[in-house]
């Protein structure tokens, strides 16, 4: 397959280690003469090798697909002009969609990097290296591979399981594997990571708590697979067990300020369980370019980028926030008149002139005291999994198949998330309350689409209904107030009134098939087996 196999010659250790970072553990040695034969000789070599897996291989996913699929496709965000992103909004996604292709390629790029490291450790590592160093490195790699496969499973369903790059080169025509086997593979990798990662490590490195949190999320998702109306109780119990471990025994806590979660001074804070470790000043395509793509003004980005003026929240998302929920709202999206003193600080701060994205907009190199940070290399270590997510996973797993719950632990951790945001606590949980809380808490972090996919596994009609309400014209008799909720809006700071913007997008009504994406066209051409029925892996 064209991108699954990639050009393995490009993935030897000398190329893997091109990414640098201000953090000591990501500093790279001279590359001259480095090969897999002479590099893996010590525990410090292992640390350098695994450090590379936290950034560059994810860059293509992090650019547009992360928010395009997680938030635009789910109806949190809208970009009405980019053709590929419009397809995500309107559910008219073709196999030629560039965002679709970028995501697929990025995930298999990550997997290829993981596989070459795994093989090198197994075949090149001398016995003199401590077993604990080796197993910890293997845990890191398998955690990251599992995370990549988790994305693939949720977006495409059955996908090829690739463990050996060399075999793929020899036989590039590979089938997709059954979805239940993909989840089993993910769980096996994560269970190894749980058992072998340390309880504590250098900030930015994954730990056993990272693996347990991710494993809880995987079990919660798999609980609905092939179910009708309810979820598998054994998987729900496993999700509650691992999430509960993180909540009760990790010693970790929520960062007191929700707003600060998305400021670079708080990278890798106590709440961060897994985050991409982006470096400043790296070449194009190897860094965090979210800010360049989503910032509404060039004054916010070193190098004059900032092409996000046309991108903003939908009115449907904005209507989820109460007036009390102002901290999370302002940290997530700007309303006209909002003031952000930390952005363009040397110029007196930034005052929003429209309704735009705020989360991931961290400002200039000067704002972040990072001289080499440029247009394409924001130093925000955007999180993939954070503790608040695990708190909500725990609450959802304890709720399980019940219509409601007053379970003490479920309420305790759920309400910690709300209290941190400054909103009133609740006394009872329902599926709708948890879903809404997750949408608000994790908005613009690429999460909501995956919540809808998880719901679609066991209650597709409910998942379809949620999206259908986003694309149905409101029934207000005033024609000026009739709008599609999946629309952008303007805001009048004098009156506090939001007014939806009309757009000409024609949105395809969702079906159960909406929750599984088409395989990219170039992959279909390179490997026709991908169009065949999935086969067992185990």
Automatic annotation (TrEMBL):
Signal peptide: none annotated. It comes from the Bacteria. The keyword Membrane applies. GO terms for cellular component: cell outer membrane. Residues 339-534 form the RagB/SusD domain. Its main location: membrane. It is found in: Cell outer membrane. The keyword Endoplasmic reticulum does not apply. Keywords: Cell outer membrane, Membrane, Signal. Belongs to the SusD family. This is RagB/SusD family nutrient uptake outer membrane protein. The lineage of its organism: Bacteria, Pseudomonadati, Bacteroidota, Sphingobacteriia, Sphingobacteriales.
């Amino acid at each position: 397959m064209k991108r699954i196999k990639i050009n393995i010659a490009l993935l030897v250790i000398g190329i893997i280690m091109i990414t640098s970072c201000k953090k000591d553990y990501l500093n790279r040695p001279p590359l001259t003469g480095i090969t897999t034969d002479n590099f893996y000789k010590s525990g410090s070599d292992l640390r350098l090798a695994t450090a590379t897996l936290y950034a560059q291989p994810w860059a293509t996913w992090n650019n547009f697909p992360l928010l395009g699929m997680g938030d635009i496709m789910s109806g949190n965000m809208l970009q009405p002009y980019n053709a590929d992103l419009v397809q995500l909004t309107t559910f008219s996604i073709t196999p030629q969609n560039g965002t679709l292709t970028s995501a697929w390629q990025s995930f298999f790029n990550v997997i290829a990097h993981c596989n070459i490291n795994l093989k090198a450790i197994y075949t090149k590592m001398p016995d003199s290296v401590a077993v604990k160093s080796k197993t910890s490195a293997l845990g890191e790699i398998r955690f990251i591979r599992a995370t990549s496969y988790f994305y693939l499973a949720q977006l495409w369903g059955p996908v090829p399981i690739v463990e050996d790059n060399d075999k793929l080169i020899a036989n590039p025509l590979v089938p997709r594997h059954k979805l239940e086997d993909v989840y089993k593979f993910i769980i096996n990798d994560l269970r190894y990571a749980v058992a072998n990662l340390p309880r504590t490590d250098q900030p930015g490195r994954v730990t056993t708590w990272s693996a347990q949190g991710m494993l809880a999320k995987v079990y919660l998702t798999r609980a609905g697979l092939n179910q009708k109306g309810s979820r598998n109780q054994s998987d729900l119990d496993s999700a509650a067990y691992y999430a509960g471990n993180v909540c009760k025994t990790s010693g970790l806590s929520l960062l007191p300020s929700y707003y600060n979660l998305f400021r670079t001074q708080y990278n890798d804070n106590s709440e961060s369980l897994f985050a991409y470790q982006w470096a400043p000043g790296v070449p194009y395509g190897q860094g965090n370019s979210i800010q360049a793509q989503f910032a509404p003004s060039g004054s916010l980005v070193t190098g004059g980028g900032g092409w996000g003026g046309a991108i903003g929240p939908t009115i449907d998302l904005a209507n989820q926030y109460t007036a009390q929920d102002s901290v999370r709202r302002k940290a997530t999206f700007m309303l006209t008149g909002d003031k952000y003193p930390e952005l363009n600080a040397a110029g007196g701060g930034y005052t929003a002139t429209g309704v735009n994205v705020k989360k991931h907009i961290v400002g200039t190199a000067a704002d972040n005291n990072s001289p080499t940070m440029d247009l394409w290399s924001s130093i925000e270590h955007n999180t993939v999994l954070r503790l608040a997510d695990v708190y909500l996973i725990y609450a959802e797993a304890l709720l399980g198949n019940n219509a409601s719950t007053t379970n003490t632990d479920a309420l305790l951790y759920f309400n910690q998330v709300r209290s941190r945001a400054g909103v009133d606590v609740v006394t009872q949980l329902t599926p709708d309350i948890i879903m809404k809380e997750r949408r608000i808490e994790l908005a613009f972090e690429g999460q909501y689409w995956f919540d809808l996919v998880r719901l679609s596994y066991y209650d597709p009609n409910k998942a379809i209904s949620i999206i259908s309400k986003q694309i149905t014209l409101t029934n207000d008799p005033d024609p000026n107030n009739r709008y599609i909720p999946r629309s952008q809006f303007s805001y009048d700071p004098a009156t506090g009134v939001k007014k939806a913007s009309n757009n000409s997008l024609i949105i395809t009504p969702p079906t159960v098939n909406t929750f599984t994406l088409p395989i990219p066209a170039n992959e279909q051409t390179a490997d026709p087996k991908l169009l065949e029925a999935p086969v067992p892996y185990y």
